[in-house]
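Researcher: Next sequence.
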Amino acid sequence: MTTPVCTSASAAAAPAGRALPHSRVRPSGAAPAYSSFASYVRARQPVLLRTARSLTANPSDAEDLLQTALAKTYVAWDRIEDQRALDGYVRRALLNTRTSQWRKRRVDEFSCDELPEPEPVPGDDDPAERQALHDAMWRAITKLPARQRAMVVLRYYEDLSEAQTAEVLGVSVGTVKSAVSRALGKLREDPELDLVR
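Model: Next structure:
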């Protein structure tokens, strides 16, 4: 009669320096990989979080999205050969994760025609008016289809070139140009942005 044994418990019971053949214990050389990953996250987290916030409407969702993308990146850390491409890898993980979430989502939020407070007229020096303008722009961007929104965010919020945006999304430069052009046309027609004009 065979008794099932938990692999993590059997790995803990194994003598030091000897890993069991089927255990999931990382080899002793894993510490430098973790160290380099932790350094990368500390250095790039603010920029990556800004990208995540651009892809979601809720700051808490953005933090969850970034954590999921970083977890996927950590799993693939040893396979990423070009360390200069890490930001692109994480951005791609953010977009793929967000797209998967969007496809699985239930619609339980409903937009309304009128906001509870009146819209302020934008001014040059008033921080409240600048924030209202920023919020109006963001609401208009969230109305765009997911693919166009991703392109606008990468192109204008992340300040990537058309070629870099195309590379991150895995599409041609022409696709980026035409999709961004259509997105900007929709933004120009958005009635909520009349206060900008």
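Model: The helical segments are 7-13, 30-55, 59-75, 86-104, 127-142, 146-157, 162-169, 173-189. Confidence is low (pLDDT under 50) at residues 1-29.
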